[in-house]
Design goal:
The complex is a heterodimer. By secondary structure, chain A is mainly alpha-helical. Chain A is built from 22 helices and 2 strands. Chain A has one domain. Chain B is mainly α. In chain B, 74% of the residues lie in helices and 4% in strands. In chain B, the strands form 2 sheets. In chain B, strands 1-2 form a two-stranded antiparallel sheet. The chains are: A mainly alpha, B mainly alpha.
Chain lengths: 505, 652
């Protein structure tokens, strides 16, 4: 336990920044905008730097929660303000703090309407997301988990595209419906175990019957968040209508709530139900990978295509989580992180040309490489990362997940691995139509390559994605102990149940 | 030194890649940038070649094999993967072949790509490719091998689509990447299966444990199978993709959309041989699975003969050579399949020289003909470009396996080994291989005669401009020609002859139960002479058809129209795949989207619920008619109902 409440600082600093923006006095509109942007950028940059301390100070030899903070909050109900991170959640905090300043920078010139409110929404959302990943009390967790919906709802609904209201409501209702069931499950757990403390609940050991119901209730919420097939249709609509930075956060961080939730709740708290329901997850995931990849192939809208590809990638993640093997789970965490960076970058890439042409249709473009070589190279890099080319961050997660699932079920492994071929199909096909060919459309002849600000937005993402691909050890090292601790009960069960199968190999 | 060989091309690629983004004003400055990129990339490659030669002598003469660990790559659970460079004889041979051919192609490209607007980008891609190829051949574990494997696929994709204005080039690039991915799908599953059996992906550890696991089985895909057979077959699927074997060969002919130096380097001499290299590298596993070896042989032999038949009727000069490449790769797999891995690598080496020579020679012809590739529009060129003509003869003689050119030695060894294997599969391979020798002679001379002999059939303006290529192009050709003439004779003793055991060391494992290569010396005399005789027969046949009776090919094509069309359309593989995979994929895609996501999920789910709610609200709204007596009536009914209910309750 550290003296210094660094986790709270990282969590609430953005909120403080939001307060400052709120306090900017009205006056010349241009000045207000500039100030709002600067405050948002500085706040998020300082938050990023602070959050790096978490990594530097992180003890990779223990599975216990670190940087713990505990304050009595509602002592009468045994509910406390309890924060902490372990090897599973730590990088999600960093992912959030990395993407927020990038979002601010990416919206620098493109958002001119209600800039103050826009920046406030993003900073509030950062607080919610960091809080969600570090909350160690279910009530606190639920507040952050649901709280994220509000700024996101506003971002889509206010700064979104023409069908933004439909998309915002679809997004809100879908996720809320799932969460209501989770809330019931949280109440049930609280009244059964008498505590809202997450580490205590992990130790509690719910009865098999109860596990089934609790697991299903949590599943309802996480499946929507991820999203899993067939509750994925809100995602393409939300992405298409959301402003670029909204898509970045949505794909980069919000989609990871579900996968993180499985790892934080379903696996450790309901182990029996987890084993029982793994086949269901595998089935839905395989459908997600194959069906959704094919749907992506038919898309005419770049953002929709990337949204569908996100669903397919999350299919890999759920497979990895429910392998209940070290490789599968580490692969799933790694893939969530790399996908956070890659899909964020891909949405930013669409944003670059959207800002210039105000169209997301693939058919608007063609031959961009002639006019935008730097853009073409950046796009190429992230396209390849998305299809899991070795040497990029996308490969490590995909490889570990498939390696993990092959040890458990070869059929699932083979069917999931078809995503490797299908993924290449839709990405290469889109890249070709947008980037290659001759410039024949008159309005593209004058399109400009990325400017300095845009290059600065992508530079950190490029570095991270290559680093993750070439030297992933620093990332994986953080996970090992926590993941081993997480799968220990399953390993024991496996050893006890099937000495035969192991010998058979 | 090891690291330098591998990473020099990467450095070159990065620098040249940066130069590609320099857009100086004016032609003179652009020329200077181009020149710089060419110097850097060629310099890096030539230096790499010199170092590779040192390593080769060090390994072969002094016997210094070893592994250099660079740093940890992936660790997770029991999985540990490092970045490391493994050097043994097999690697050393590959290093030398790859760097040498690559260096020649780099120099050649200076001449060939002259005047292209994107020279730095091209040179960067070539360097990048070489880097990936070198990581592939120096890999000490399967995952790193896969890194190089996918990397060369990427470079191939980039180079096939180098002229990105052409729709056909873009289509070919995507096709190459995707077909290779299908192969890689098998390859990664092979890696996973290896890990399942051995709990490691490290090559040396796997090889050490292979003997103990020779009879192991595991349960995969719903049945219990011989473990090593499953692993080898899955890995071989990857090899089939990369080395364009039948079924997954369709990308290679299309890959000819790339610039000709690329065809020579990637799609003939190096990348496509990665599959053969991989099988040889994994010989300590393949040796324990007779089934897998039989499959390798059958696929190789079938590919050799099928693609050779296609090569006989193609009219595009590069496509003829491309199909010939598939066919020659088939020979290499025949060798690997009968446990004559060293013969396969021997043919890989000689093939690298003569096929690169043929491709670059063809490039020289195309260059001379102002980018014409159709042989029907050539003819009579031999007097105009005599040096190219002579070099094409050398390449063709080597390719057809005529003594004493390089291809003779390696091809003879392979067919003798196939015969000596004494198995049914070996006999299958021997006879198909012999038939392929006939076809090889035929299509090689058909190409030579159509291109260089007879009356000029091209347009006069084109013919008038025919000229011999510059020195930057002819000098590399001469170097490769030296290889195509002498590599077979010089290498025979070391690769497959008496000195082979010392030469290979422990790089390749052959079990005593697979003595095909040792027995190859003792085959009957007719076996040794048959391929040579058939090769010569093919040449005579081509001479007869295209020189003595020029009307004959047309008449035959007309007489056997269905057969001719079948061959001309490449056995309809593309059409078949289009109908079975491509179209259904797009059909399903559209339907899943519109019907599945749109009508079913959204229709029943959120939109359906929303519609139902709205309908309910509308119906409720209709009750509010606004007339007072409606409301009064409703209220009265309610009161009556309540009173009745109350009274009934009282009574009960």
């Amino acid at each position: 336990m550290t003296e210094f409440p660094i986790l709270s600082l990282v969590t609430f600093l953005p909120l403080v920044g939001a307060g400052f923006i709120l306090a900017i006095p009205g006056g010349d509109a241009e000045v207000v905008r500039r100030n709002a942007r600067s405050v948002a950028l500085w706040t998020s940059m300082i938050t990023l730097l602070l959050s790096l301390f978490l990594w530097v100070q992180f003890d990779t030899t223990t599975a216990a929660f670190q940087f713990e903070e505990r304050r009595a909050w509602m002592p009468a109900f045994n509910i406390s303000y309890h924060m902490g991170v372990d090897g599973i959640s730590m990088f999600f905090v960093l992912l959030t703090t990395l993407l927020t300043p990038i979002c601010v920078l990416a919206s620098w010139e493109t958002v001119t309407d209600r800039v103050k409110e826009y920046m406030i929404a993003f900073l509030v959302m950062e607080t919610m997301m960091v809080g969600m990943f570090s909350a160690l009390d279910v009530v606190l967790f639920y507040i952050f988990f649901e709280g994220v919906l509000i700024p996101m709802f506003l971002i889509i609904g206010v700064w979104g595209g023409p069908r933004r209201v439909y998309a915002a409501f679809k997004f809100f209702l879908y996720t809320l419906t799932g969460s209501v069931l989770m809330l019931l499950a949280i109440l049930a757990m609280y009244f059964t175990a008498g505590t809202a403390d997450i580490p205590a609940l992990m130790e509690y050991g719910f009865s098999a019957d109860m596990q089934t119901w609790l697991w299903l209730a949590f599943f309802a919420s996480f499946a929507v968040k991820l999203p899993m097939w067939p509750v994925h249709t809100w995602l393409p609509d939300a992405h298409v209508e959301a402003p670029t930075a909204g898509s970045v956060i949505l794909a980069g961080v919000l989609l990871k709530f579900g996968g993180y939730g499985f790892l934080r709740f379903s696996l450790p708290m309901f182990p029996d139900a987890t084993i029982e329901f793994a086949p269901l997850i595998f089935t839905l995931s395989i459908i997600a990978v194959i069906y959704v990849s094919l749907v992506a192939l038919a898309q005419e809208d770049m953002k929709k295509l990337i949204a569908y590809s996100s669903v397919a990638h999350m299919g890999f993640v759920t497979v990895g989580v429910f392998t209940l093997t070290a490789q599968g789970i580490e692969g799933a965490i790694f893939m969530m992180l790399s996908h956070g960076v890659i899909s964020a970058a891909l949405f930013l890439i669409v944003g670059v040309v959207y800002d210039r042409m105000h169209s997301r249709d693939i058919s608007t473009y063609g031959g961009l490489v002639h006019r935008m070589p730097v853009y073409a190279l950046t796009f190429m890099l992230f396209m390849l990362a998305s299809v899991g080319l070795p040497g990029t961050g996308g490969f490590i997660g995909e490889f570990l997940i498939l390696l993990g699932i092959f040890q458990v079920n070869t059929w699932v492994a083979a069917l999931t691995a078809t995503g490797v071929v299908l993924g290449a199909m839709y990405m290469l096909y889109m890249y070709r139509r947008v980037i290659f060919g001759k410039v024949i459309k008159a309005d593209l002849k004058a399109i400009l390559d990325m400017n300095r600000r845009e290059v600065m937005v992508f530079a950190p993402l490029i570095l991270v994605v290559l680093w993750m691909g070439l030297y992933p050890a620093p990332f994986l090292d953080v996970m090992h102990v926590s993941v081993d601790n997480l799968i220990e009960p399953f390993e024991q069960a496996r050893r006890a149940a099937s000495g035969v199968a192991v010998a058979g190999r | 030194m090891y690291a330098a060989v591998v990473f020099l091309p990467l450095v070159g690629a990065v620098i040249a890649g940066m130069l590609a983004f320099v857009a100086p004003a004016g032609k003179a400055r652009q020329a200077r940038v181009d020149r710089a990129a060419q110097w850097i990339t060629c310099g890096a490659l030539l230096l790499s070649t010199v170092l590779a030669a040192f390593i080769f002598t060090d390994v072969v003469v002094a016997g210094n094999t070893g592994t250099v660990e660079l740093f940890t790559w992936i660790t997770s659970g029991a999985l540990e993967v490092s970045w490391a460079i493994k050097v043994d004889t097999l690697t050393a041979v590959m290093l030398l072949v790859v760097t040498l051919v690559s260096a020649m192609v780099h120099v050649y490209s200076i001449g060939y790509m002259h005047g292209d607007p994107s020279i730095p980008r091209f040179m960067a891609y070539l360097n990048l490719f070489t880097f990936f190829m070198l990581t592939l051949v120096t890999a000490d574990n399967l995952v790193q091998l896969y890194f190089g494997w996918e990397g060369v696929g990427l470079a191939s994709y980039l180079l096939i689509g180098f002229w990105y204005d052409r729709p056909s080039a873009n289509a070919a690039a995507i096709k190459a990447f995707l077909v290779n991915r299908v192969g890689d799908f098998g390859f990664v599953l092979g890696i996973f299966a290896t890990f399942l059996l051995f709990q490691t992906v490290d090559l040396d550890t796997i090889f050490a444990a292979a003997a103990n696991k020779a009879d192991a089985t595991f349960i995969v895909f719903g049945g219990e199978f011989h473990a090593i057979t499953v692993i080898c077959l899955l890995l071989f699927v990857g090899a089939m993709g990369k080395s364009a074997q039948i079924g997954l060969h369709t990308w290679l002919p299309d890959a000819m959309e790339g610039p000709t130096p690329v065809s020579a380097l990637i799609h003939a001499a190096t990348m496509v041989t990665a599959g053969v290299f991989m099988v040889a590298r994994m010989s300590p596993l393949f040796e324990y699975s007779d089934t897998a070896l039989a499959v390798v042989t059958i696929v190789g032999a079938t590919t050799a003969v099928v693609t050779a038949t296609i090569a006989c009727v193609q009219n595009d000069i590069k496509r003829v050579i491309a199909y010939s490449t598939c066919s020659q790769l088939g020979y290499m797999f025949i060798a690997a399949g009968v446990s004559a891995y060293s013969a396969g690598v021997f043919h890989l080496t000689t093939h690298a020289f003569f096929k690169a020579l043929l491709f670059l020679g063809a490039g020289s012809v195309i260059h001379a003909m102002s980018d014409e590739q159709d042989m029907r529009k050539m003819g009579g060129l031999w007097k105009m470009i005599p040096l190219t003509y002579g070099l094409m003869w050398v390449g063709s003689l080597a390719g057809a396996g005529i003594w004493p050119f390089a291809g003779y030695f390696s091809k003879e060894t392979i067919l003798e080994a196939a015969y000596a294997a004494g198995t049914g599969v070996g006999a299958y391979a021997f006879w198909l291989g012999a038939a392929t020798a006939l076809l090889t002679g035929f299509y090689s001379w058909r190409l030579l005669l159509m291109t260089f002999h007879g009356a000029p059939r091209g347009e006069e303006t084109v013919i008038a401009r025919v000229h011999e290529s510059p020195k930057a192009m002819t000098v590399p050709l001469l170097v490769l020609a030296v290889g195509a003439i002498f590599a077979g004779y010089a290498g025979f003793e070391f690769f497959v002859g008496d000195k082979a055991a010392d030469f290979w060391g422990s790089a390749i494992l052959v079990l005593p139960s697979h003595p095909a290569l040792e027995a190859a010396d003792g085959v009957p005399g007719w076996v040794k002479l048959l391929p040579l005789g058939l090769g010569l027969g093919g040449i005579v046949l081509a001479y007869g058809m295209y020189m003595l009776f020029p009307g004959l090919p047309g008449a035959l094509a007309g007489r056997f129209q269905p057969v001719y069309r079948f061959l001309l359309n490449k056995w309809y593989f593309d059409e078949l795949y289009d109908a079975v995979f491509v179209r259904p994929a797009f059909y399903l895609a559209r339907n899943f989207w519109k019907t599945g996501d749109g009508a079913l999920i959204d229709g029943v789910g959120p939109d359906g619920v929303a519609a139902a709610t709205r309908a309910l609200a509308r119906r409720a709204g209709r009750l509010q008619s606004g007339y007072l007596y409606h409301y009064a009536f409703a209220m009265l009914s309610g009161v009556v109902f309540l009173v009745t209910w109350y009274l009934l309750g009282q009574a009960g």
